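INPUT
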Amino acid sequence: MTHPFTAALIFALPLLVILAFVVMALIEKRRGGNVGAPGFFQRNGTPVAIFLIAATAFWALVLIVFPQLYMVDYSFHPKLPELKRGGPEDHYTLENYRYFLFGSTQNTDHWNTTHLNAFWITIFVSTVITIVNFAICYPLAYFMAQVAKAPTVLKLMVLLVIPYWINEILRAFAFRILLGTGGLLNNVAIALGLIQEPIDFIGHDIALYAGLTYAYLLIMMFPLYNAIESLDHNQIEAARDLGAPWWHIHLFIVMPFAKPGIASGATLVFMLCAGALAAPLVLGGPKTLWFTPIVYDRFFQAFNWPQGAAYAIILLLTCMAFVSLVMRLFKVNLSEITR
Amino acid sequence: MSADIELDRVTIRFGEFTAVKDVSLRINGGEFFSILGPSGCGKTTLLRTISGFLEPTEGAVRIAGHDMAGIGSNKRPTALIFQNLALFPLMSVAENIGYGLRVRGVPKAERRRKADELLRLVALPDQGDKRIGELSGGQKQRVAVARALAVEPKVLLLDEPLSALDLRLRQHMRAELRAIQKRVGITFIYITHDQGEALTMSDRIAVMNAGHVEQVGDGRSVYDRPATPFVASFVGENNGVSGLVESIDGEMATLDTPLGRLKGRGGAGLKPGDPATIFLRPEALRLCAPGETPDLTAEFVNSAFEGNFTFVFLRAASGQAMTMSVGRDADIGALAPGASVALAFDSADALALPVRHNA
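OUTPUT
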């Protein structure tokens, strides 16, 4: 098991952070601050205020921060049987990260090409899927938000939402049935004489990419719709009146305005895609490289939890770094997204 | 460069609803032309048709002699200033003004030069780098004008752009807009429901009601010689007293009304025995001089001091509310509510108009 001191540190750290915030708040109050506005306790009443704080703290700390911190700590330990944890062999090590890069816990002679490839393909394909999702959703979101009348919007909304009543795994299986070698699409194409031999959509990962694109369509759709919907239609007309062709209006009026919506949609789709598990398991072919099933295997096939933790953290940090880099590139900040 | 605009029997329908009925107008190049009417009279629809956002259901719009059918708003020589201005909030003032030029591929330095020049024209020099959110209402107004003028339109269309401003600023902007129009010399078509705006700024005014044009003329003729009862009561304050035409004597008509016999100039189409309304402007009414025979009498209700004149609110014998405006020297201080007031007016200042049955 973890060293008692580190464990104590891990659990104490968030509490210390909260304490620091409380102290900062108190200091600010003493400096005067906003005199007229009622405080959090006055506004909600003491019992409700205490409940809100406790519930939020429980949710944030116990359900999110502690497990993640525990995984971070876990990833720096060797794989050991239960009895030896906390014993003399339990020490901090980078061997799990070494394994990811070099395929061995000991030497650094060869790159771990299988896992590295899967990792980069996951990031790359998630990026492509995000872009494809944007390309599909933007015209539809624009149409619904600015062009269509209310009854049409309602109908489209219902049509968009209904497929998502079906469980994700079932939807993935439906794609397998549609795109399999003996599936509907191949059968129809052969019957029409378009192809002679069935195309192996699953073996070539086309089924997986299509399934992932489909799975997260709505998650791109709604932030985009909301962002475009809040654009004053007069601005589009004003641009048009000033002589702008349609593409110029989209590129320089609508998209800059919808940037926060685009950013939040893209972030969500990318993160969910890179972390998707069900679709790759169901729609992946025998040679499919997707990083999350590998992480899953570290935990439940290799029973190497420290390694699984390391892999999960590598994926998480890379995705976060990538997303913040892209946001920096497009000059979006976090506060705009949550707007 | 300015251009004539011709609306040739324009009708615009939305499904069953006819927003504009058979409107024909000729607006001269370089003119400040107002379209005045209450909300819902079809004036904005007409403006959107000229700017190309709507196509007329029937009839034609011609700008500088060219039929505009099938020509989109981005290809017309018009620029529209929206009621809410529709400035682009993410762009700076200069970028807003330069947008139309950017679309036309004008290089950045040239756009900036043009923006600065226009900012001087609208009396906002050196404000090009400000964000739109940093501007006051009047400044936004000026930026909207500059943005529209940047593309050098032949016709500038204004859709009640002053309605969001407070009274003082609105009055100031009226004069400003008029001065800008004189300087650039292009045709302005100005939509408003505010008769004061229309009267002070325009060369000519078209008064619209329920989708059709009731009268076209300069401010003075619309005010002094309204063609229809609607124009008479919509443009300026007016007291309309309805009755039947008793007799017509040349230009003058006498009406038999619940307030007695009233005599005034007769409008076109007046026939004895027909229902008609006689209109008395508040400033046409005056208190009877001692010994003079009153034209009508009313009960004093109250008065409102407006500074250079005073509104006197009266109730006529029929219960009808009437308004009179009197100068500073008028002797109304002694009047108590309910007191009887004897009124007189010059029959040349009164106008009798036939009541149309179908309107």
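end of record. The radius of gyration of chain A is 25 Å.
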